[in-house]
Amino acid sequence: MNKDKAMFSYTMDSNDMEEENRLLRETVSQLKNEVDRFKSPALLIGELISLHDQQAVVKLPNGNSFYVDISNDLKGVSSGDSVLLEQKNLTVIDKVEMSKKFNVEQFVIMDDPNVPWAEIGGLDKQIEEIKEVIELPLNKPELFKKVGIHPPKGILLHGPPGTGKTLLAKAVASSTKSTFIEIVGSELVQKFIGEGAKLVKEIFQIARERAPSIIFIDELDSLAAKRIDVGTSGEREVQRTFMQLLAELDGFKPLDNVKIIGCTNRLDILDPAIVRPGRLDRLIEVDNPGEEGLKEIFKIHTKNMTIDKKLDVDKLVKSMKNFSGAEIKAVCTEAGYFAIRKGKTKVESEDLIAAVKKIKNEDTDMLNYLIYG
Predict the structure, then answer these.
(1) How many CB atoms lie under 10 A from the CB of residue 346?
(2) d(CA 97, CA 78)
């Protein structure tokens, strides 16, 4: 009896051990496969341009094209397909399903801004020009048809940073109830190597679908600088993206409900092709405001602030000579902070003087002298 129990126990232990060994072998095998998978080189993604029996011309994302072999096991590929390429000799291994379209809304800022013209000070001349070129054709296209002229397709705002170029673009989008599509030229080039031209095409397409719309291209100089001898793949990509932008500008009619506003701080380095007649041919300079403009901007930014009535605004404005609109706004914000730090609910002259000092990086005593004499 005891002998039978011992045999039964031995058999149970043996079975348990065999089961455990089997599980361990499976685990080891899985881990080896996982390690081998991690060690295997990544495959490149390219576009199949043309087929030639068991060879093909493929294009890599950096723009280079190669004549390569196709794996014997791969069937059913055709021109235009996205394919996986072995890294060493670029043999076409497999076909991969990839979307041919971007989700454009992920890559651009789309907005319906609410910026009234009254929120912009010191730029009366620029506002008048923008109204003529952008607002009037969008709101009253029939006037241009009756007269028989074509308005410009777009404008170029140029000038120092912080002078209100973006604000002007948002204000005209607001006044025309247009969709505001903002693109940053430098990001377009840096983020989408190999895909910049395709993205530009789709941005214009979505602008047409959501018309009336305004495409605002910030830092245009990073995309449309004067062309030089193309060397690196990055430079070639910039050129391809720029050429697509020119093609899109040429491809729609002046009275389409899509307008282009370019923006740059470096007009001197722009390629003449972008500002020739028929493209962004209306140049509007947005410079730092004069004394009256400074006063207007200061009043706009302080209209909701509680300010000491003894303040001599004229003298304070003189101390902010050559300030941009953005710097004036910064002065008002900093003055509010100085008041809050002192536990006050009213912004006094000394707070504004300290704020100008901080922005201008000058001596407070000198500013006191300029304002109070």
Answers:
(1) 11
(2) 13
pTM over 0.90: no
- Please state which CATH number belongs to domain 14-98: 2.40.50.140
**End-to-end Cα distance, the chain:** 118
Residue 76 backbone class (left: φ over 0; alpha: ψ -120 to 50; beta: rest): left
Q: Domain 291-372: state its class.
A: mainly alpha
Classify residue 296 as exposed, middle or buried by CB count within 10 Å of its CB (0-12, 13-18, 19+).
Answer: buried
The pLDDT tens digits of the residues spanning 308-352 come to 777 888 888 888 888 988 999 999 999 999 999 999 888 888 888
Distance between alpha carbon 196 and the CA centroid of its chain, in Å? 12
CATH number of 104-285: 3.40.50.300
Q: Where in the chain are the domains?
A: 14-98, 104-285, 291-372
CB 270 within 8 A of CB 221: yes
- The string of pLDDT tens digits covering residues 236-249 is 778 888 888 888 88
